[in-house]
Write a structure and sequence with these properties.
This protein has about 220 residues and is an alpha+beta fold. The protein folds into two domains: about 20-25 and about 95-220, Roll (PH-domain like), CATH 2.30.29; about 35-90. The protein has eight helices and eight strands; from the N terminus they run H-E-H-H-H-E-E-E-E-E-E-H-E-H-H-H. The chain has helices at about 5-10, 30-35, 40-60, 60-95, 150, 175-195, 210-215, 215-220, and strands at about 20-25, 95-100, 100-105, 115-120, 120-125, 130, 135-140, 165-170. Strands 1-2-3-4 form a four-stranded antiparallel β-sheet. Strands 5, 6, 7 and 8 form a four-stranded antiparallel β-sheet that branches. Helix 2 crosses helix 4. The radius of gyration is 21 Å and the shape is elongated.
Length: about 220
């Protein structure tokens, strides 16, 4: 992981003594597939190219059908290139930070915006791991806490429009990051309740086992 000057990137209100537990950026390739739906775009243009061949060949011949399919595939390649560029820029300009008391999200390609999410405002968290080991970690905010979906996108849990959930998208080694966040949430919850042992108080975050079991439901469209 490349060195990051957190003093320049974090908001000034991070108190002295608060520990940085993890920081990182999305994997841009995973972000392109998961957030920008590059796979669906590629599939759509592929199907359109097949459709052009099937409908044009009988009437205008194979040469016209091939040219029509080539134009469709060219448009698809241009669309995918744009999505990949947006994904790369988004990953380069995003910073996720987990401290001992909060999550900080620095977002925005042109105009950076900070979202400060204290653990006391987080009701729950979940985890979805992709085949490459990267994954999404969305957090549900407590009652009365809300950030507009458009302000977060693509760093939001998909399809949760009315109750947006900020999400650390496509983070590398997502399971390890989720474990770090889970321990921090448990410790912060116990500290607020005055409980010495982490095992004595239920955690406000989903356990990794339950998160794995509910991953498909949690991200269902």
């Amino acid at each position: 992981m490349k060195a990051v000057n957190l003093e320049k990137l974090l908001p000034a209100d991070i108190p002295a003594g608060e520990r940085i537990l993890w920081h990182g950026r999305p994997e841009w390739k995973s972000l392109a597939r998961g957030a920008f739906r590059a796979d669906f775009v590629a599939g759509y243009f592929g199907l359109m190219a097949i459709w052009n061949v099937a409908t044009t060949a009988a009437d205008s011949g194979w040469l016209s059908a091939t040219l029509a399919a080539a134009k469709t595939l060219g448009a698809g390649c241009a669309a995918l290139a744009l999505l990949c560029l947006l994904s790369w820029l988004s990953a380069r300009t995003t910073l996720y930070v987990v401290t001992s008391r909060r999550i900080v999200m620095k977002l925005g390609i042109a105009l950076p915006v900070f979202f400060n999410l204290p653990f006391s405002k987080i009701a729950s968290a979940s985890l979805r791991v992709y085949a490459d080991g990267s994954g999404d970690i969305p957090v549900a905010l407590g009652e009365g806490q809300r950030i507009a979906y458009l302000h977060l996108w693509p760093h939001a849990r998909p399809f949760r429009i009315t109750h947006p959930e900020p999400a650390m998208r496509s983070v590398p080694d997502a399971q390890a990051v989720a474990e770090t966040l889970s321990r921090a949430l448990i410790a912060a919850s116990n500290e607020r309740r005055g409980v010495a042992s982490p095992a004595a108080t239920p955690s406000p975050v989903l356990t990794l086992e339950s998160a794995r079991r509910s991953a498909n439901e949690a991200f269902a469209a």
